Amino acid sequence: MPTQVNFDSLDGLHTFPRLLFHHAKVRPNAPAMREKHLGIWQTWSWSDVAERVRALACGLASLGFKRGDNLAIIGDNRPHLYMMMSAAQCLGGVPVPLYQDAVAAEMLFVLQDAGVRFAIVEDQEQVDKLLEIKEQLPSLAHIVYDDPRGMRHYNQPFLHDVHELMEMGRIHDRNHSDFLNAEVEKGHYDDVSVMLYTSGTTGKPKGVCQTHAAFIAAAQGGAAVDKLSAEGDILSYLPMAWVGDHLFSFAQSLVCGFTINCPESGETVMTDLREIGPTYYFAPPRVFESLLTSVQIRMEDAGKFKQRMFEHFMAVAKRCGGDILDGKSVSSGDRFQYWLGNLLIYGPLRNVLGMSRIKVAYTAGAAIGPELFSFYRSIGINLKQLYGQTETCAYVCLQPDGQVKSDTVGAPAPGVEIKIADNGEVLVKGAMLLKEYYKRPDATAESINADGYFLTGDAGFLDEDGHLKIIDRAKDVGKLKNGAMFAPNYIENKLKFFQFVKEAVCFGHDRDMVCAFINIDVGAVGNWAERRNIAYSGYTDLAGKPQVLEMIKSCIEEVNASLAHDSMVADSQVHRFLVLHKELDPDDDELTRTRKVRRNFIAEKYKVLIDALYEGKGNQYIETEVKFEDGRRGKVSADLKIIDVKTFPIAKKAA
Amino acid sequence: MSRNIGDVILDLQNISLRFGGVKALTDISFNIREHEVRAIIGPNGAGKSSMLNVINGVYHPQDGKIFYRGVERKKMEPHMAASTGIARTFQNIALFKGMSVLDNIMTGRTLKMKSNMLLQALWLGPAQKEEIAHRRKVEEIIDFLEIQHIRKTPVGRLPYGLQKRVDLGRALAMEPQILLLDEPMAGMNVEEKQDMCRFILDVNDQFGTTIVLIEHDMGVVMDISDRVVVLDYGKKIGDGLPDEVRASPEVIKAYLGAGH
User: What's the whole-number mean pLDDT along residues A476-502?
Assistant: First the structure.
């Protein structure tokens, strides 16, 4: 890792392009990026990457890309897309990654807002999207594509193959050999390095402008806490438009010098994970959850002997695995058992999961179930949580080794100050804060207070060890009619910790009781149903089976029982629920692209159902329009049963 | 579309095929042009698969002549058809269920392997080099058909739609000039059908492969084929552009019954 950034010296490594050329100088032959092509992993060394970035940057310049221009980046994680990010930064431009699975109309706003003139896209699919909306984007002058497949018949002059761009750049570089170095020299740490759009849970997406200094500070802080080095691999498969990927893949790999590995395609991630065996891994809780579910399903199909061995050693791991990982003292008997278990179960299991080499794994984006969290830690995977948002480079709290707790998000990261406001909102300050929202001084002023603290919008508190505990979004925390606090996320997360529940939406603000919508997890419930010889045709059918409803009911009762023990939320026990007839989907605007529930939208869309819940009806017919991936529309309808759930008397806290 | 439909590549003249007293095909003539998508349609038992089997060399017609690239084909066996560049997929998928997708597609390369069996078995010298080259070609096909994620999965464990795609991959591995597809979309759902259509058109467009396909789904046929030949009870009742065929009274009668 380069030494601490000296922001004052002119030749300091305080912008990402400088870091890139630094690595190309000090470790030219070390692998910088890998991508699987035709079944074989291809490696680019740091000097290869530097050469290509140089060519791409010069190519962009010869197309007329200028300081301050924005470059849209749309596609899966591909080396050339990451290189284009660096290329734009070399010229003092700003890369603007977009969520690649958004439909053209959704991209339009961001592209217009950012006034994009140049775009690099992955393939024909994305080119088609841009061509669809090009007329509404008068400023868009050039589109570069990475994958030439299917592009033979496109002869628009503004379309360029990425290799063609590189060739143009190489010629430009030969003719103006000092040009690029001078451009990189002009880069300043206070320049905007990237613009990441918020997912727009509320209102229109906003472009968050982050500087080189902010992301370098965040990357260095994280690297210091986790002792990251140049020796390492990360599998980059989460959307490039997401701040987490930008921090972990782009910023930290440039700061530390480790290797970015791009999976072959979205479907091969699990295989690629196993082949690469990353040392550094990042996944939202649902990925860890589905991995665990698949392990459990396969264990149920295993032989009796293997099952018993698995159960025995998992019990051992549960007892002492977490403590061993944290370096706490454990009896020698347990230590021996754990050693044996490691040989027979945990080691092979880690290998199957592709996590044999993991030094540290992170999860964030949503709450992770305590059981799930401790499962991974108990088999020796150093899984941690972190807390942050786009506006803070995803860098606010980290869990230091040895102090990992499942119900907090960890201690303030190096260089970050945290304050809790009177209304419970978490306020943060540090080098990693955003510079501004793009063209939105009003929003910038609203989100940063007079003392320079950023208002996260999350409600939380610091526990006795100084670790931050997040309860809910500050604005989502409401009140029941009797005045008791209602934190919907808190209950929903408890529900979602069951493998059968994929999504839950709770209602209760200004009402006299809490009711819930449930989405079942087709994989887990489907398997459960098969074991009981319950035939079903699809999600809607499965969701309506009386046995399934009964099983979900028992899950909710368990949650109610646990809620009854906590006086703060005991009134929020779920009284009635229904299982939705369709899966909530970002294509129908019910979830954000990061798969967060859009509560108000759902409340409005399914008003009939909510009314039925609170009016005490036993069932309700509903018909809903759905959008398919190819843009066609269809309808699903069902007669939903509404079920009453047992609630528990509020337990008095033992003195 | 920019591809140019070329000359007649396969010309079938007055083909008749009998199994004992059963007349499967009676006096059928039509031709196939290079780079086109040619569909053979017709109700059940019309003789579509028999026609494909004649082209493929499985059946030998009692009467009629077949010209391949202007040369009359005398004796024909399936393996000879294969070596002259005719590949096919089957109505009932014919893959090795226990073998991986990769190995199944690799079998499509067998005819192109030059080194002898002993060297191949020992994976020595030229055989090794050869296999690597073939593997590369197979990987290109895997990439083309977007089945990277199931590369190493045994075919028997795949859903039907994907098996069909693997079947297509195996046929493509021969780098055929003419590709015969026997009901490539039978039993598929709408999404799988759309995928398959796209792949067929992509094959045709990108490799210039001539495609002869049998299909029941009229919507699909009319959408993707350049010319359509219609069979009924072993006789040709229509031949021409999709729109012409659709409008032909005889075809309507065969499909919808005499009342219309």
Answer: 84
Which architecture characterizes domain B1-85+176-260 according to CATH? 3-Layer(aba) Sandwich (3.40)
- Please list the residue range(s) of chain B that carry CATH number 3.40.50.300: 1-85+176-260
Q: β-pairing, A514-520 with A280-282?
A: unpaired
What pLDDT score was predicted for residue A8? Answer: 47
Query: Architecture of domain A16-282 in CATH?
Result: 3-Layer(aba) Sandwich (3.40)
B202 touches chain A (CB under 8 A): yes
Q: Tell me which CATH code domain A478-644 carries.
A: 3.30.300.30
Cβ atoms A282, A248 nearer than 8 A: yes
How high is the pLDDT of residue A412? 92
Cβ-based neighbour number of residue A40 at 10 Å: 10
Q: Give the pLDDT of residue A3.
A: 44
* Least-confidence region, from A18-22, A251-255, A644-648, B71-75: B71-75
Among residues A181, A176, A165, the alpha carbon closest in space to that of A121 is found at A165
Taking an 8 Å cut-off on Cβ atoms, the answer to whether B142 and A39 are in contact is yes
Q: Which pLDDT band holds residue B189 (cuts at 50, 70, 90)?
A: confident
Angle separating helix axes A162-175 and A46-62, nearest 10 degrees = 80
Amino acid of residue B103: D
Beta bridge partners of A386: A398
Q: Does B140 contact A39 at a Cβ distance shorter than 8 Å?
A: no
Structure tokens at B36: 């086109």
Residues of B in contact with A268 (CB under 8 A): 148-149
Query: Domain boundaries in chain A?
Result: 16-282, 478-644
A 10 A CB-CB count for B198 gives 13
Average pLDDT over residues B124-152: 88
Residue A578's H or E segment, with its range, is strand A574-579
Looking at residue A648, its pLDDT comes to 86
